[in-house]
Amino acid sequence: MQSRVAGLIAWPFKMFFTLLFDAGEAIGAALARGIGRLRGRGADESLAGKQAGQRVMMGLSVLILALLLLFELFPFFFAFVSAFKTSNQITDMTSVLWPQPWTLQQFGKLFGETQF
Description:
Elements: H1 2-38, H2 50-82, H3 87-92, H4 105-112
């Protein structure tokens, strides 16, 4: 029963990443064909053979993984940087990505005013 529920929960994520990488492969193939046509190669000839296609796919894979990594790590960065903001900067949403000035006010509040 639990594996069925886990499978149902994981299915949308599996489909999302399958579609994402399939789209990346299609874009890479279209780029290789387009560049090949610009260089005067036939439709069935690749830009520089099999290795060029592999390089394009590797580049797209790295780009997609880098974007995914950025998406995953941004909340940790935001929480870390927000710890060094003043209360006014947090509530007014000023200096959203970088505190001006850096302060330890929130740590004083955490350890002094709460029962942490």
